[in-house]
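Figure 3 (text version): structure tokens given as input.
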């Protein structure tokens, strides 16, 4: 690689270009940022209402990720009469690193709709009083009665009644606090670590493999917090493919189809106007 790749990296020296690349002003819905948030953070009890601010806080060019090196050995001695030392050693030659063309860190402020799932009440009731299978099944919203009876070797309502005492527990959640747009209390500042891979041609297989390898090596070699701001952190970084628009046009693959494929694989692909 070279030429157009070097040209793109020189342009990415400007934090403003990086910010516009990842969060273009022409996209008021912040689709790329939302995709990266979904790749890096688990939001089981929240949803992103809006992206308030995006800032590039760090940039490093050509960051290496090294493959693990396997080393093993054994030391054996026979004593006391005869002292003999046998040394056995096995190693694996170091392999060249995988390179991240532009390692970028973003500070992203988002407005979250939070649902803490606070319990309002718990109610336990005895539901052992039933005469028919249909009457018993109607006591539940969702219940595979046939599967339950088969797994316990029961075939009649009498066997079902004799087998157990049945309790039904209902847990009612509290109503969430109404969301107020623009309220700073709903805002969270998150850090997104990104691995930008600049490519000068379209090679779907090779580029997907590169993104997968970078993520795998990062998982093995980079220590990162598993939770942040009360949310799960799913990965140490998110891979981004940057491909010149001219290369996409030359490939003959429709741009929308190419980008949708990489999105389905949790890789953000971005056309670059060189």
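Below: residues designed for each position.
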């Amino acid at each position: 690689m070279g030429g157009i790749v070097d040209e793109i990296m020189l342009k990415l020296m400007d934090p403003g270009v990086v910010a516009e690349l990842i969060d273009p002003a022409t996209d008021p819905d912040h689709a790329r940022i939302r995709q990266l948030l979904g790749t890096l953070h688990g939001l089981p009890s929240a949803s992103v209402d809006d992206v308030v601010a995006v800032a590039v806080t760090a940039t490093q060019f050509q960051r290496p990720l090294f493959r693990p090196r396997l080393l093993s050995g054994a030391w054996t001695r026979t004593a006391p009469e005869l002292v003999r030392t046998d040394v056995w050693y096995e190693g694996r030659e170091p392999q060249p690193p995988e390179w991240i063309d532009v390692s970028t860190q973003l500070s992203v402020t988002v407005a979250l709709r939070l649902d803490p799932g606070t319990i309002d009440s718990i109610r336990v009731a005895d539901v052992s009083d039933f005469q028919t299978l249909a009457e018993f099944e109607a006591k539940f919203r969702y219940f595979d009665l046939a599967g339950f009876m088969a797994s316990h070797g029961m075939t009649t309502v009498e066997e079902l009644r004799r087998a157990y005492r049945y309790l039904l527990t209902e847990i009612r959640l509290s109503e969430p606090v109404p969301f107020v747009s623009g309220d700073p209390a709903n805002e969270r500042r998150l850090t997104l670590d990104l691995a930008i891979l600049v490519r000068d041609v379209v090679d779907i297989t090779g580029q997907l493999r590169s993104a997968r390898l970078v993520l795998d090596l990062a998982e093995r070699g980079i220590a990162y917090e598993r939770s942040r701001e009360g949310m799960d952190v799913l990965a140490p970084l998110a891979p981004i493919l940057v491909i010149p628009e001219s290369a996409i046009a030359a490939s003959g693959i429709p741009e929308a189809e190419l980008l949708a494929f990489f999105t389905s694989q949790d890789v953000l692909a971005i056309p670059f106007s060189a």
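Residues 204-221 form the longest helix (18 residues).
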